[in-house]
Write a structure and sequence with these properties.
The protein is mainly alpha-helical and about 400 residues long. It has three domains: about 10-100, Fumarase/aspartase (N-terminal domain) (Fumarase C, Chain B, domain 1, Orthogonal Bundle), CATH 1.10.275.10; about 110-360, Fumarase C, Chain A, domain 2 (Up-down Bundle), CATH 1.20.200; about 365-395, no CATH class. The chain has helices at about 10-20, 20-45, 50-70, 85-95, 95-100, 110-145, 165-180, 185-190, 210-215, 225-260, 290-315, 325-350, 355-360, 370-375, 380-395; strands spanning about 150-155, 155-165, 190, 220, 270, 350-355. The protein has a two-stranded antiparallel ribbon. It has a two-stranded parallel ribbon with strand order 3-4. Helix 9 (about 210-215) links the parallel strand 3 (about 190) and strand 4. Helix 2 crosses helix 9 and helix 11 packs antiparallel against helix 12 (about 325-350). It is elongated, with a radius of gyration of 28 Å.
Length: about 400
């Protein structure tokens, strides 16, 4: 199979192995690649590579490709190595010679860098919006059940009294903490387009105007060092996933709590029937699979993050092809986070609280620490009060 860079054919098995699932991932990211291509074309016009007619012709062709890739079922044909070569070939097909000018002053590496950077910025904004919606849902349900008592557990055993609003609001408060700790957006907000193959265009007669593409794409600043740009491939993705990981931990904890509290032995909470599944052989079963998948996805997410970290840890400076393998786990990890937060929000909004069962579970031993407190307030030392209440409990058993 001939490539855009060679006059020989690559072995079909080598071609299939090296491409892997890259075309499917690039299809998902195609709109971001085209956004960056449009900015690059604008820059080429500004430095005199494309005249006004050529610029208009190529920009119109990019619009055609944007419309094409936005349609459901869009796929990049298998004859292409990646989405970048697909864009170049299609622009040449539509525009002729002006399309052959478009790849000047860029590499597929900085195409991938800026494409992923734009995707990361967008999905982080979308995730943050969904987190805010989730926070509001948690607070709404929490206030609705303010003062409803339920047992608190330590070591999976009854411990002390708590309330439904304290339990639910703890997750809302944790989400606030995660959002306050956010800083990766500032790191992402720098433009790598124009870094080429990782060494820039130093000493060459024509250089890309990175300030121009930064302005068009909305980046606050240029990522100046081209080797730093290349080094950031995979590293920035790892940073994004590190920031998102606490959301998956919290979602898993929410799922685990609810799997426990929906058990027949508890029945503190429930979801409507349409949120559950059944069994193929046990007619009585009502399974909370949604929570089990939510809990399991924390591990899937962690696996994706580990894949990226493993790939980037072994490389030397400069681009190597195995960086391509970081795209799939990064995109899919981000998609899992977004889907999980949306589903978490749905379970919160549809959560049913069984107050009678919670009330019945408020056994006397839950108040032991409070009873100690009462004795201390009457003048006893803490440890004497502790031993006295412990003995009283033993006698009541």
């Amino acid at each position: 199979m001939k490539k855009i860079w060679g006059d020989y054919e690559v072995d079909s098995h080598v071609n299939e192995y090296t491409i892997g699932q890259d075309l499917q991932i690039d299809a998902k990211l195609m709109n971001y690649d085209l956004m960056a291509t449009s900015a690059h074309v604008s820059m080429l016009h500004s430095v005199g590579i494309l005249d006004i007619e050529e610029h208009s012709l190529v920009q119109n062709a990019i619009k055609i490709l944007k419309l094409r890739c936005s349609k459901q079922g869009f796929a990049i044909p298998n004859k292409y190595e990646d989405g970048h070569s697909y864009i170049e070939a299609e622009l040449i097909k539509i525009c002729g010679d002006p399309g052959k000018k478009v790849h000047f002053l860029r590499s597929r590496n900085d195409q991938a860098l800026v494409m992923l950077r734009l995707f990361a910025i967008d999905i982080l904004k979308e995730i943050d919006t969904q987190v805010q919606i989730l926070q509001k849902s948690l607070s709404t349900v929490s206030s609705r059940h303010r003062g409803t008592h339920m047992p608190g557990y330590t070591h999976m055993q009854k411990a002390m009294p708590t309330t439904v609003d304290t339990w639910i609001e703890s997750f809302a408060d944790a989400l606030v903490d995660i959002r306050l700790s956010s800083n990766v957006e500032a790191v992402l907000d720098q433009n790598p387009l124009g870094s080429g193959a990782g060494y820039g265009f130093v000493g060459q007669k024509i250089k890309p105007d990175q300030k121009h593409t930064s302005k068009v794409l909305g980046f606050k600043r240029v990522q100046k060092n081209p080797m730093h740009c290349s080094m950031s491939r995979g590293l920035y993705e790892s940073m994004v996933l590190s920031q998102l990981y606490p959301y998956m931990v919290l979602a898993s904890q929410w799922a685990s709590d609810n799997l426990l509290f929906t058990m027949e032995e508890f029945e503190f909470v429930s979801l409507p029937d349409e949120f559950t599944t059944g069994s193929s052989i046990m007619p009585q079963k009502r399974n909370y699979d949604v929570y089990e998948i939510m809990r399991g996805n924390q591990s899937i997410f962690w696996g994706y993050s580990t894949q990226i970290n493993g790939i980037i840890a072994k490389r030397t400076s400069g681009y190597q092809r195995d960086l391509q393998l970081t795209k799939k786990p990064f995109v899919e990890a981000c998609e899992i986070v977004l889907a999980t937060i949306k589903m978490w929000d749905k379970t919160v909004k549809n959560l049913k609280i069984n107050k009678p069962n919670m009330k019945n579970a408020m056994s006397p031993n839950l108040y032991a620490t409070g009873n100690v407190n009462d004795l201390v307030s009457e003048g006893a030392t803490f440890r004497d009060a502790y031993i006295q209440i412990k003995q009283t409990i033993k006698e009541q058993l």
